[in-house]
Design brief:
single chain; alpha/beta; Aspartate Aminotransferase, domain 1; Aspartate Aminotransferase, domain 2; 2 domains; 14 helices; binds pyridoxal-5'-phosphate; 8-amino-7-oxononanoate synthase; Aminotransferase_I/II_large; pyridoxal phosphate; 8-amino-7-oxononanoate synthase activity; PyrdxlP-dep_Trfase_major
């Protein structure tokens, strides 16, 4: 009975052109990936600054394993917190201006901990409509009440805040939205929260490293001090090219999470070798402004060419550029057609994006060359005409 039910759900996914399976990479070399013995220019990764393959990061990983061990061998409050974890926390606080930070095995876990632990039944969580699945799930599983406001719409947020005057309102938004690549006005959002005695919680998974001076992220890029946020999370698996995540906040918030966040307390600590790699990645990210400059050049080139070619792109000044197709079937067709000229560009379909807004989500990196972007636009335009 249960198996039949599962099979039926799988068949339904397939019939709706929504079935997904992982792509197996034989090799990852930054801008080029090898799949089934063929090389492709990769426009679907999150390695925005090209740090995942940087020789210094790789060396730090290898040296870290030899020096500190491959695994932490315990949960953080037992024996899983090593000196290198503390060093990483200290570096995060010095870099980003938080009083304290806490490490998590993934951004998904950090978001679960952030919303589920910090809110209670007296609170209302107000989430942007396009919030990442990890935030939505966390809000749904929390004891707080949960409402969503129209995407990046401050007046919709103000109305919600007005409506929930009685409760502790916790406003949750993202520095860079993962599927559209756009950003909220964080300074205005922080001000609005202040006026309503609400708390602002930020997911900066796609902003850290990419935006702001020394890659300090979305809040810094918009002149919002870390102290204006109730807390902020970001992960190490995107611009920093490794894996894992952290939450940064005041000492009180982090002390509380350290005691009560089940995703932290009951989970094996991050690998110390990984922490060593992240530390090197952060150092390079801070020192090497050329990576952000090159990424910006690539973003501007992509936008200029896409607009000239009349491609239906969303407004975004970040590494995430969405070409909206609409139908899942056509998005898949276009993605498949681009494989012939060796371009890897994945189709993103519901439920990851709203129904009717299937897209090709281009992610740019500092490693892309000018010719790669020209080639992408040429083949996108040619094949878009064939499917339209
Ligand atoms: C906005 C956002 N938040 C959180 C996550 C989860 O982070 P992680 O992949 O480290 O679990 C992701 C991406 O996967 C994301 O795009």
């Amino acid at each position: 009975m249960k198996l039949e039910q599962l099979q039926q759900a799988l068949m339904q996914r397939e019939a709706q052109q929504l079935k997904r399976s992982p792509v197996v990479l034989q090799q990852y070399k930054g801008r080029v990936i090898r799949v089934a013995n063929k090389d492709y220019i990769n426009f679907s990764g999150n390695d925005y600054l090209g740090l995942a393959c940087d020789p210094q990061v790789l060396q730090a990983y290898a040296d870290g394993a030899l020096r500190y061990g491959a695994g932490s061998t315990g949960s953080p409050l037992v024996t899983g917190q090593h000196a290198i974890h503390q060093q990483l926390n200290d570096t995060l606080c010095e870099w980003l201006g938080f009083e304290r930070s806490l490490l998590f095995s993934s951004g998904f876990a950090a978001n679960q901990a952030m919303l589920m632990t910090l809110s209670d039944k007296h609170d209302v969580l107000l989430l942007d409509k396009l919030s990442h699945a990890s935030l939505i799930d966390a809000a749904q599983h929390s004891t707080a009440s949960f409402k969503r406001f129209a995407h990046n719409d401050l007046s919709a947020l103000a109305q919600q805040l007005q409506r929930h005057q009685e409760a502790n309102a916790m406003v949750v938004t993202e520095g860079v939205f993962s599927m559209d690549g756009d950003s909220p006005d964080l300074a205005a959002t922080a001000k609005l929260c202040q006026q309503h005695n609400a708390y602002l919680l930020l997911d900066d998974a796609h902003g850290i490293g990419m935006l702001g001076e020394q890659g300090r992220g979305s809040a810094a890029a918009q002149q919002v001090a870390s102290s204006e946020l109730f807390c902020s999370m970001a992960n190490f698996g995107k611009a920093l090219g490794v894996a894992g995540a952290f939450i940064g906040a005041s000492s009180t918030v982090i002390d509380y999470l350290e005691q009560f966040a089940r995703h932290y307390v009951y989970s094996t600590g991050l690998s110390p070798a990984l922490c060593a790699a992240v530390l090197t990645s952060i150092r390079l990210c801070r020192e090497q402004q050329w990576r952000r400059d090159k990424l910006q050049q690539n973003i501007q080139l992509f936008r200029q060419l896409a607009i000239a070619a009349d491609l239906p792109i969303l407004t975004s000044n970040t590494a995430i550029q969405a070409v909206i197709i609409g139908s899942s079937e056509q998005a898949l067709q276009l993605s498949a057609a681009l494989k012939q000229p060796q371009i890897w560009l994945s189709a993103i379909r519901p439920p990851t994006v709203p129904v009717g807004s299937a897209r090709l989500r281009v992610t740019l990196s500092s490693q892309h060359q000018t010719a790669d972007i020209h080639q992408l636009i040429t083949y996108l335009r040619q094949n878009y005409d064939l499917i339209a």
